Amino acid sequence: MTRVLITGADTKLGVAVNDYFTTRGAVTAAPPVGVDHTDRATVRDAVRQVAERMGGIDVLVTAHALPHVAAFTEQSMAEFWGHVDATLTGSFLYAQTTAEHMRDNRTGGRIVLTTSRWHIGGPGLAAVATAAGGIVALTKTLTRDFGVFGIGVNAVAIGGVDSEWSVCDPEVATPPLGRPGTVQQVANLIGLLSRPQLKAAVGQIVNVDGGLSRNRV
């Protein structure tokens, strides 16, 4: 039975991811309500509690962060770092602690980080792009750090999807498919990336944006 830790279970994406796994017989858990995703000691304790409750962790999915859109000259440093910390630092801490657990217990596992397709940058997206670009680099680095222990790390970059992240998409940005994607479609991809059978399919950032992106990362 697959054991899945999902951060951000109260977001649209988090709910869809939880539904995906539970309907397929997996056991899921989320960090305690109110946990500070940017505090190392708090995150480590939260992951420990979840691992003890489920008897281990096979998959980590991070979906806790929410976007911050603001004109570059109008946002404060507190707002900027608030988003970067919640998104990038939080993803780092959960990945670090969960990967240590998978390594030390010799179980291996899969980690899927979620981010925005706007790692390419966009108007009013200084904080979003900074955090997203960091997650791109983090995904590729963690693969090199933990791949030898059977831990596969990938990321999903979201855009053109009906979720909290829709505020990052310009009104004129209609996906080539002609309509926005859904969080259920994103959850399906996350479920695929969580399969241990994928083996060497690691270190990848997969865009889920209806074909809006034309970049390679």
From TrEMBL:
It comes from the Bacteria. It catalyses: a (3R)-hydroxyacyl-[ACP] + NADP(+) = a 3-oxoacyl-[ACP] + NADPH + H(+). Coiled coil: none annotated. Its main location: secreted. PANTHER family: 3-OXOACYL-(ACYL-CARRIER-PROTEIN) REDUCTASE, 3-OXOACYL-[ACYL-CARRIER-PROTEIN] REDUCTASE FABG. The keyword Secreted applies. Belongs to the short-chain dehydrogenases/reductases (SDR) family. It is found in: Secreted, Cell wall. It comes from Mycolicibacterium goodii (Mycobacterium goodii). This is 3-oxoacyl-[acyl-carrier-protein] reductase MabA. The lineage of its organism: Bacteria, Bacillati, Actinomycetota, Actinomycetes, Mycobacteriales.
